[in-house]
Amino acid sequence: MSAFLNDTFMAAEAARLHVTDLSIQRSYAVFDFFRTVNWRPLFIDDHLERFFLSAASMYLPVNKTKDELINIVQQLVQQSSLSEAGIRIMLTGGYSPDTYTPANPNLLITCSPVKTATAADFEKGFSVITYEHQRELPYIKTINYAMAVWLQPLLKEKKADDVLYHYNNIITEFPRSNVFVVTKEKKLLTPARHILKGITRKQVLSLAADVLMTEERDIHLEEVYNAAEIFLSSTSKKLMPVVQIDNIVIGQGKPGVVTRELYRRFLEKEKNQ
């Protein structure tokens, strides 16, 4: 695995951050993650735009331009010899003198093998549970996934693949994915507020525009339980059908017609990027 730390390329094993970094002391850092397809970073412009927005929102200056970051990523991909790779860009709070005040940020970029959802995974779909929780600063892609990690034993106990957050009976997102609901009236819904707006989510909304009516709005739990189809979207999972939620079978318990069509369109777009 290859890495880039601040201004130096190195083996990932050699990349080190001091214990005073705020990413370690206070989970104060932002990141973005994308992958390559046939050596080419997928939707990199959108990911970097979000990365810069997250950094600015956390008052962390990025000392590289967009073009410089793209060049670094391209070099890492070449060094890794991976045509299909995962790229993670992290900007930390820096080496704080008092373990509380942000300092000069550290920029860490890694390139490593990536595992993505397969066609077989798509056919199987996900069984999920719901949990009441609202992430802090949801529009910023921070490294704080404490709740998601804390919930892992519950997921194992419930034999669930993921957890869908809701607050005041309004759904928001999965810890690492966005959610879409297809109503029985064939309308595509996705939450509009209190979420991280994913890059794959953006692609889905674009691809769905000439397939069915779409709407970004608050979605109540009752609408989820009565949905015709549900699926999630993310960089590594692409589009993943949700076939069961809180022991309620969705649709026929298998990928629905709309989900299949959007999945097909997404794979086609991915291939042609």
- Which range does the strand content fall in? 25-35%
Give the total of beta strands. Answer: 15
Oligomer: single chain
| Topology as a string of helices (H) and strands (E) | EEHEEHHEEHEHHEEEEHEHEEEH
CATH topology name of the largest domain: D-amino Acid Aminotransferase, Chain A, domain 2
The CATH class of the largest domain is identified as Alpha Beta
Classification by helices and strands = alpha+beta
What's the CATH H-level homologous superfamily of the largest domain? D-amino Acid Aminotransferase, subunit A, domain 2
Per CATH, the architecture of the largest domain is Alpha-Beta Barrel
Mean pLDDT: 97
Low-confidence stretches: none
Biggest pleated sheet: 9 strands, mixed
End-to-end separation in angstroms reads: 24 Å
Describe the structure in your own words:
The chain is α+β, with helices and mostly antiparallel strands. The protein has two domains: 2-113, D-amino Acid Aminotransferase, Chain A, domain 1 (2-Layer Sandwich); 119-272, D-amino Acid Aminotransferase, Chain A, domain 2 (Alpha-Beta Barrel). The chain is built from nine helices and 15 strands. It has helices at 22-25, 44-57, 66-80, 119-124, 146-150, 152-158, 199-208, 221-225, 257-272, and strands at 2-5, 8-11, 29-37, 40-41, 85-92, 107-113, 126-132, 162-167, 170-171, 178-182, 187-190, 213-216, 229-234, 238-245, 248-249. The strands form two sheets. Strands 7, 8, 9, 10, 11, 12, 13, 14 and 15 form a nine-stranded mixed sheet that branches. Strand 3 (29-37) and strand 4 form a beta hairpin. The longest helix is centred in the C-terminal third of the chain and has 16 residues, at 257-272.
